[in-house]
Amino acid sequence: MAETPVIIVSSSEKDVGKTTIGVNLAAALWSDGYKIKLFAPKNQTVEEFMSRRLLMCLQCKIDMPMPQIINSINEDNDEKTIVVAVIPSAENEKYSEVFFKAHTLISLGCEKKDFNWSFNNPYINLIWQTKKNAASKGIKHFNWIAVQNKYTGKNDSLKDDMQSMSKQLGFRVAEPLHYRDAYRYVENGYCAADMAKYKQIFKMSMDDVYARREILNLTDDLWKHK
Questions:
Q1: Cα gap 86→9, rounded to integer Å
Q2: 103-119 burial: b if 16+ Cβ within 10 Å, else e
Q3: Rounded to an integer, what distance in angstroms lies between the CA atom of residue 105 and that of residue 144?
Q4: Can you give the residue ranges of every domain in the chain?
């Protein structure tokens, strides 16, 4: 049985949108037919998402996919299963074993300080150990993606700075995610991917359409590494 892909959504700083983006990413993947398991320790937002999602299914009489919440990523899975792991930034090192199992690592940040990474930064040291672990398994190009979240305009772009840093640290830079209300539908138990599928229940605005497109572009980036 092939090893289950583990996609980690992480950051070196808190309050950058890991949970909302992680759940939206999971929703986009299950809309592609994957079975999704969520590893999100100490994450009340995910617990509330699941309970509100179940309530919405009952009230609207629809059958939205329900990701399984797991406490360990060592469970057996079939080939269509993907684990999305949302790691608390204050405890990155505590979950080093989860990092070592990653197929893809997504690093989120909002401002320049969130990407102010030096070689002695604990977060970068953990990623360096993760890359070394991947190399020991014969993985030459570990899939590490940096994404600016809550991008608002040209003057707010960090893309040039991130591209320069990527050459030093070895990550790929994804297109930024805009500050969109659609991402925060997670608080109500659904995502933009759900809105596109259940049009009889949800009416999508253009902002919702753009949000869904941004997340789909990010899912495409998951499989582009060499």
A1: 5
A2: bbbbbbbbeeebbebee
A3: 5
A4: 6-221
The model's pLDDT over 31-42, given as tens digits with 9 standing for 90+, comes to 888 899 999 998
- Do β-strands 104-109 and 143-148 pair in parallel, antiparallel, or remain unpaired? parallel
Helix (H) or strand (E) holding 70: none
Mean pLDDT of the residues in the chain: 89
Question: Whole-model pTM?
Answer: 0.92
Tell me the C-alpha distance between 76 and 91, whole Å.
Answer: 25
Q: Give the CATH number of domain 6-221.
A: 3.40.50.300
| pLDDT of 1 | 45
Report the candidate in 21, 3, 1 with the shortest Cα–Cα distance to residue 11: 21
Which residues share a beta bridge with 167?
A: none
**Cα–Cα nearest to 150, from 194, 124, 117, 183:** 183
Contact 139, 156 (CB under 8 A): no
* 88 alpha carbon, distance to own chain's centre: 12
Model confidence at 77: pLDDT above 70: no
**pLDDT at residue number 140:** 81
Per-residue pLDDT of 128-156, as tens digits, reads 999 999 999 888 889 999 999 987 766 67
Strands laid side by side in the 172-173 sheet = 68-69, 35-39, 81-86, 6-10, 104-109, 143-148, 172-173
